[in-house]
Amino acid sequence: MSRPDLNLLLTLDVLLAEGNVARAARRLHLSPSAMSRALARLRDTTGDPLLVRAGRGLVPTPRAIELREQVARLVQEAHAVLRPAELLDPSRLARTFTLRTSDGFVENFGAALIALAGREAPGVTLRFVAKSDKNSAPLRDGSVDLETGVVGAASSPEIRTRALFRDRFIGAVRADHPLAKGKITPARYAAGQHVLVSRRGLDKGPIDEALASLGLTRQIATIVAGFSDALTLARGTDLVASVPERHTGNLRAGMYSFALPVDTPGITVSMLWHPRMDADPGHRWLRECVRQVCTQ
């Protein structure tokens, strides 16, 4: 049995990433005809067409989709094996890291993270982008270096995670709200007008389930996509916002906060990254900075 040409792994990785023979050829500094021959060899080796014509472009076959993550990991690991080990000097690091963060992270942890990074690595720039969903594609394609949030079922199984802190939901109202005085019972809480946070536009959540177990129903006056929006509305109206305590500390400044009068499950806020960044010294430094800031 002949040995496979391992150079084809790199070619396959680039072809699957680009989905285009001409672009893949440019990345590997090959002619389009040479790349076409390489694709033909890959088809012969794998016994699968891998990329097939669809209109003017190419689309991956199910086998190609199955191979994509495995091939990318193998290529990254090969690069790591062949790259000499380096001790990172953060003071000499010149790099931009993109962090996709859940609602409230920048407001509560951004300043401390920027200050820490600035002291240790003045050549580093931190770029924060909003996290609108739990899709792991930005981590996979490299457009995002690190993510924060609650790990959900939509997160890809290959994604690495590390817990940062536990959080719980609390209530928040403007300082002179009626709930700011007296004992807050489940009935008083449910009787208020509520703002619900749901990125997917759902009209119920764990709090409603806890109230239902007591025979209570709260009235949802409005639904928003983020905690900062919910707190902004609650600050200027009679609305009651229910938000994570630690994740919204700075956002709740000047408001009255209270423990929910019903039991709801806590949440674990984690950082997430793609496994190809595991051994990257700069990325390891970034992860440690985030861990320090969030566990203080």
Total helical segments:
10
List segments where confidence is low: pLDDT < 50 over at least 5 consecutive residues: none
Mean pLDDT across residues: 90
Please count the beta strands (DSSP E, at least 2 residues each).
12
Shape: elongated
The run of helices and strands is: HHHEEHEHEHEEEHEHEHEEEH
Strand order of the largest sheet: 4-3-5-12-6
Biggest beta sheet summary = 5 strands, mixed
Description:
- This protein is α/β, with parallel strands linked by helices and 296 residues long.
- The protein is 39% helix and 22% strand.
- The strands form 3 sheets. The chain has a 5-stranded mixed β-sheet, covered by helices on one side.
- Strand 1 (51-54) and strand 2 form a beta hairpin.
Q: Secondary-structure blueprint of this entry?
A:
Elements: H1 7-18, H2 21-27, H3 32-46, E1 51-54, E2 57-60, H4 62-82, E3 95-101, H5 105-120, E4 124-130, H6 137-141, E5 146-149, E6 160-167, E7 169-173, H7 186-191, E8 193-197, H8 206-212, E9 219-224, H9 227-236, E10 240-244, E11 256-259, E12 267-273, H10 281-295
Parallel strand pairs: 3-4, 3-5, 8-9, 8-10
Antiparallel strand pairs: 1-2, 5-12, 6-12, 7-10, 7-11
